[in-house]
Design a protein that fits this description.
about 300 residues, globular, AB_hydrolase
Length: about 300
C-alpha cells in the first residue's frame, strides 16, 4: 500500500494481525532494508517467522527504490569522483542524507499511527535504524543492527573484489543483463557457511527486477551512506536495548564494523554468526529468529517496568 511519509510517497507492506486474541495491539517491528534493495528482499520465511512469533511486521521500500518515490530530478552522482573526494578528505554533498531516510522511517510509523516500534535494519538499513534511534529515541523500543556499521573512520574496507563488482555496470540495458549483474554481486557477498540455491536466488532476483529496477536510486543512496561521517560519534547516546548481529565471513561490511557498532552503543549485545556473509539465507534465518524474539521480548518487558 502507498502512504505519505515525511512528505513523500512510500510503499509499505503490513504483515500480521495487529492485535492479539484479547484485542491488545501486537508489538510492531519495523524492518529497514539495505542499499538498493526493495522490501521484497526480506525473505518470506523471516517475515512469516516473526509474525508467527507474535509481531506485527512492517516492511517498506526506502526512498528512491522499488515502488516508493524516486528522486531522478536530483541527478545521478559520479561514484568514482565522489569516492576520490571521500578518500582525499573533501566534503561530499549527497542528494539526500541518511537522516532524511530516518525521517522517512519515522514517517511510516506516523502515517500508521504507531507510537512505538522495535526497529531492525540490515546493512544500510541498520545505519538508518541507528539514525532513527538517535532522531526519536522515545519511539524506538529496541534496536537490531544486522550486518551494518557504525561508519567510524578507520574501519576495514569492503573486499576489493566485491568493490569491483559493486562499482561495475551491467553489460547493456537489458533485463537479462541487470539480472546477471545482480546475481554476480549477490554471489560475491553470499554466506560461505550457508550456501543458497542458485536457482532460488535467480528466481528472487528476476522477481525483484520485474517489480522495479532503479540503479540510479542505488547510487544516490550510496552517497547518503558515504556522507554520513558523524554517526559513530553519536551512537554513545543511544540507551535503548540494542542487538548487533554480524557474520564472520562478511566481505561487503567486514565483521569489525559490527563489532565497532556494538562497542559504541551502551549495553549493546553482539552476536557473531560463523560462516555468515552479507545475506539472509535459510540457515542464517534459523539462527536469527530466536535471537530477535529473545531480544524483542526482553526489551518489551523491560520497557514496562
Amino acid at each position: 500500500m502507498k502512504i505519505i511519509a515525511n512528505g513523500i510517497s512510500i510503499e509499505v507492506e503490513d504483515s500480521g494481525a495487529g492485535f492479539d486474541a484479547a484485542g491488545q495491539p501486537l508489538p510492531t517491528l519495523l524492518l529497514i532494508m539495505g542499499l538498493g534493495m526493495q522490501l521484497v528482499a526480506w525473505p518470506q520465511t523471516l517475515v512469516a517467522g516473526l509474525v508467527q512469533a507474535g509481531f506485527r511486521v512492517l516492511r517498506f521500500d526506502n526512498r528512491d527504490i522499488g515502488l516508493s518515490q524516486h528522486f531522478d530530478s536530483l541527478g545521478t552522482p559520479n561514484l568514482l569522483w565522489e569516492g576520490l573526494k571521500y578518500r582525499l578528505g573533501m566534503s561530499i554533498s549527497p542528494p539526500y542524507t541518511l537522516q532524511d531516510m530516518a525521517r522517512d522511517s519515522l514517517g511510516v510509523l506516523d502515517a500508521l499511527n504507531i507510537k512505538q516500534a522495535h526497529v531492525m535494519g540490515v546493512s544500510m538499513g541498520g545505519m538508518i535504524a541507528q539514525r532513527l534511534t538517535l532522531l526519536a529515541p522515545a519511539r524506538v523500543v529496541s534496536l537490531a543492527s544486522i550486518m551494518s556499521s557504525s561508519g567510524a573512520p578507520g574501519l576495514p574496507a569492503t573486499d576489493a573484489a566485491v568493490t569491483r563488482v559493486l562499482l561495475s555496470r551491467p553489460r547493456d540495458k537489458s533485463v537479462a543483463a541487470a539480472q546477471e549483474h545482480t546475481m554476480r554481486l549477490l554471489m560475491a557477498i553470499s554466506s560461505p557457511g550457508f550456501p543458497s540455491e542458485e536457482a532460488t536466488l535467480q528466481e528472487r532476483v528476476a522477481s525483484s527486477i520485474t517489480r522495479n529496477y532503479h540503479p540510479h536510486g542505488l547510487m544516490r543512496q550510496m552517497m547518503a551512506v558515504v556522507a554520513d561521517t558523524t554517526r559513530a560519534f553519536e551512537l554513545g547516546s543511544i540507551r535503548v536495548p540494542t542487538l548487533v548481529v554480524h557474520g564472520t565471513s562478511d566481505l561487503l561490511v567486514p565483521l569489525a564494523c559490527g563489532q565497532d557498532t556494538a562497542k559504541r552503543i551502551f549495553g549493546a549485545k553482539l552476536e557473531m554468526i560463523q560462516g555468515m556473509g552479507h545475506d539472509l539465507p535459510a540457515g542464517v534465518i534459523a539462527r536469527l529468529l530466536p535471537l530477535l524474539a529473545t531480544h524483542i521480548n526482553a526489551s518489551a518487558a523491560a520497557s514496562l517496568k
